[in-house]
Amino acid sequence: IPVDPFDLVIFGGTGDLAQRKILPGLFRRFVAGQMPAESRVIGAARTELDSAGYREMVVEAIREFGGDFTYTDKQLKDFLGRIEYTPIDALGDAGWADLQELMKGKGRTEAYYFSVSPALFGELAERLQQWGMADRDARIVVEKPFGRDLESAHALNATLATYFNEDQIYRIDHYLGKETVQNLMAVRFGNMLFEPLWNAQFIDHIQITVAETVGVGGRGEYYDKAGAMRDMVQNHLMQLLCLIAMEPPARFAPDAVRDEKLKVIRALDPVLPHHIVRGQYLAETGNEEKMPSYREAVGAPRSRTESFVALKTHISNWRWAGTPFYLRTGKRLSARSSEITVVFKETPHSIFGEDAGRHRNVLSIRLQPNEGITLGVTIKEPGPGGMRLIDVPLDMSFAEALGQDAEQVDAYERLIMDVMRGNQTLFMRGDEVEAAWAWTDPIIQGWEARNDVPKPYDSGSAGPDYANELMRRDGREWREVT
Ligand code: NAD
């Protein structure tokens, strides 16, 4: 379904995110017919370039990061015809008059994507207002990180609120744009099968793992000031936790959904110090090419920043009291894998006797790679061996089930189109972000107060063994990171 024609200004339009995600994503929507041909994409950044130079950069970005999809030369040419560029300084007046000129002649949806350092978010909002571009119907898209603690997030919300209403602000968490995440809601609220069992009475525990194989790469300077708790847990893992744990909203509508998510965050228990493990990766030596340790990568030989976190928490409400939630994320782990695992309780009694084995249903929601949902069910082992039970997966792999018809849409593409539709459901509201920081802050402050040193772990492992211990103490285990 095409959206209405729009003008999208990308502040930071020459940056890494714009090149890897935003521009190729827009092109794919253009080719799919969703981005109307009258729309315009306007790059605005500090880089001195003209529109022709920017279009060359866009072509390169599409070639390098567009993925394998087919398009014609004419489609590319038409798309480039919709691209403009204007150099601009968020911290000064340079370029603003030109942008103002470009944005004259309204009638189209207007959106401004803040794909720049968070230090510039407030400046951009203020200048948009100064130069008359902060109309009531303009939209701003704000990248992560949204603050580094409750105080800074609150201040940023207050600054943005000076110039824009909450319904104009789209705070991106690209995890919410993933197909499987929306499918999680379809599965939960579109079936009679799951919701009656979706509580502490039937669910033993829930695990959320976001494992990466990459290290900090070129983001060392930023990352060392943030760490996994701020960079991943406060936003991405927290959002997944909300969707898995929230009460059914009355409608699939922005505030109905976000109200329910907020209640989950507010019901989270504080994390006890012995329920959380931080880790930091060591160098990888086995391979020919030596991969640096975390400390080498960030150039800080005594860094105490964590590249791994595993924790246990509870949600203190009627639905979840007694069901632990285990969250885990880290860099340089054995595999790239994001998965939510719902482990149901054992049956109360085995009619087949203890020899048959006792089994648990496990629902696993896989975000990457191989997006899909699998439900493990227990059946009889085929053959003459008597009543022995085995687990088999009921696989809801989307690619397989839906075949060629399943259109692959990247999270960023989907979210940008949602901005143009004016649909905020998959964006974080200001109070949600602040509530998540209010839960995260004491954890980080505790580490700082104790001068906590993260546990070292081998690159290519599943993290420090202490994380396994966290589970073992409870008689449980993590799903293997594969
Ligand atoms: P980048 O450093 O690659 O690009 C920064 C962009 O900002 C450039 O286009 C630069 O010209 C522009 N810029 C810098 N100072 C400016 C100023 N004073 N006035 C106008 N423009 C200015 O950064 P990036 O990796 O593209 O990240 C952009 C934002 O997206 C950041 O908030 C980052 O945290 C967030 N983000 C990035 C990624 C990623 O994968 N790169 C992922 C998630 C979030």
From TrEMBL:
Q: What is this protein called?
A: Glucose-6-phosphate 1-dehydrogenase
State the function annotated in the UniProt record: Catalyzes the oxidation of glucose 6-phosphate to 6-phosphogluconolactone.
Region Disordered, annotated ranges = 451-482
GO MF annotations for this entry?
glucose-6-phosphate dehydrogenase activity; NADP binding
Gene name tied to this protein:
zwf
User: Is the keyword NADP in the record?
Assistant: yes
Species per Swiss-Prot/TrEMBL record: Sulfitobacter alexandrii
* Taxonomic lineage from the root: Bacteria, Pseudomonadati, Pseudomonadota, Alphaproteobacteria, Rhodobacterales
Q: Which InterPro entries match?
A: G6P_DH, G6P_DH_AS, G6P_DH_C, G6P_DH_NAD-bd, NAD(P)-bd_dom_sf
Reported EC number(s) for this entry are 1.1.1.49
Residue positions binding NADP(+): R46, K144
